[in-house]
Amino acid sequence: MKRNLVSIPLGILLVSSFALAACSDGGKATPAATNAATGTTAPKATADNTPTPITIMAPLNTAQTPPDTIIKELEKLTNTKLTYQFFPADTYEEKLNTTFATGALPQVTYLKNQATFIQMKSAIRDGQFWEIGPLLKDFPNLSKLKSTTNDNTKVDGKLYTLYRGVDIARQGLIYRKDWADKLGLKPPATTDDLYAMAKAFTEQDPDGNGKKDTIGLTDRNDLVYGSFKTLAAWLGTPNNWGVKDGKLQPEFMFPEYVKTMDYLKKMRDEGLINKDFAATSKTDQQKLFTNGTAGMYIGAMTDVASLNKDLIKNVPTAVVDVHSMVAGPDGKFAAWALPGYANVVLFPKSAIKNEAELRKVLAFFDKMMTPEVANLANWGIKDANYSIVDGKAKKLDEEKWTREVKPFTDAAIGDEDTSGRLLGIPSIPAQGKADELKIANLKFAVQDPVAALDSKTNLEKGVQLQDVIKDATNKYIYGSIDKAGFDKAIEDWKNRGGNKIIEEYNAQYKK
Length: 511
What we know:
Layout: E1 16-20, E2 32-35, E3 40-43, E4 52-60, H1 69-77, E5 80-88, H2 92-101, E6 108-110, H3 114-125, H4 147-152, E7 162-165, E8 171-176, H5 177-182, H6 191-203, E9 215-218, H7 228-234, E10 241-244, E11 247-250, H8 255-269, H9 282-290, E12 294-300, H10 304-314, E13 320-323, E14 335-336, E15 341-346, H11 355-368, H12 371-379, E16 386-389, E17 392-395, H13 398-404, H14 406-409, H15 416-419, H16 429-440, E18 445-446, H17 456-478, H18 483-509
Parallel strand pairs: 4-5, 4-6, 9-12, 14-18
Antiparallel strand pairs: 1-5, 2-3, 6-15, 7-15, 8-12, 8-13, 10-11, 16-17
């Protein structure tokens, strides 16, 4: 079978694996027994109580692999024998590429995000992963997954993935409120105000140490999940694709995209942002905020609790806040919207030999969506990692939760409302505000019009072609090319297959 490689640069990874023991009931409901340690219920053994071995590969968004605290409880609840292979998120795509190329993907393979999923579609089309859509009706909990999100992950109308749900409009600004208060700044109402805040945070000694050692905004080498897409939406850019003169066109062919580049170029030229952002990892981007260097972080507002936790270790007096309603030059609000999923899971045929084995793996995920197991994966062990207050989960120790539970939370399937897990009590006021703003943002959410569409040429060449635009965007912001140089890159994109992508998307869009 032909193996299509994911186009990702190479690097060095750290891997840790954990063996877990548990049992599988093949997706059939069984009587439950109470687990005294967790306050949850576990299925009783069936006639065949042989553990089903499952190996899971997933990205790790924490500094260290988790201890076996949660693993021991999972083995009591899920009737499987699991091996978790965690790889650092910053280099996960590289490891995914390498493992895929050698035919060594495990039974359960998490991707990293929407972009990685798009890269993998050609391999899905090539028949290298199991189609699971027709089977979901046989699993009571998996069948609760949202049809609209499932539709956004289909390939040629077929479903191959389970998804990890995400807040559709979670993007916004996390900033140092103590700095803003000291300098007499209000939350930015416009993109001009946002620039003014970044300039003040850079030039007016907000930390009061008498040195010019702060910057306004910290960013990273990601034009999607870094600052760029969120800023672009505020400045009026469409989400990946937009409609101009009744025809779909890519975002970078809109003048607002150029305005976004100009905006960030000005900030970089004036030293208001880390000048090497195109070579900065997410980890290092966040460190610039948590070590007290940067005063603004644009991204998922839901990151505020973890950023605050690390920040106050270095600056105990720091106060953070969140904000999202930033109007562009036209005075309108807009919020970049995700397609309903943060990540997806695929099931390689090279690791799962037949449908019977596939059903056992799906049975595990069906149990992971029961309230009992979902609470364990999302909150940890009751009275050790969280307590229940007024019907909601309250973390007892944010740092301990991050260390022990977060890796499993990041691998959870479904959404808060589809799994029935407990809602949480904010650990800091800014987290509660972020929860409110991500709902308020929905009114202004800008959707991707091609999220559920496919282009054959985009699947074959989209990754390489997008690199042309990404490279040109960074070069423009860095000042190595001008507008003419950027327009030349667009023509290069068109001539190498971009025109065909536009044609194919428009043919589907008009149906």
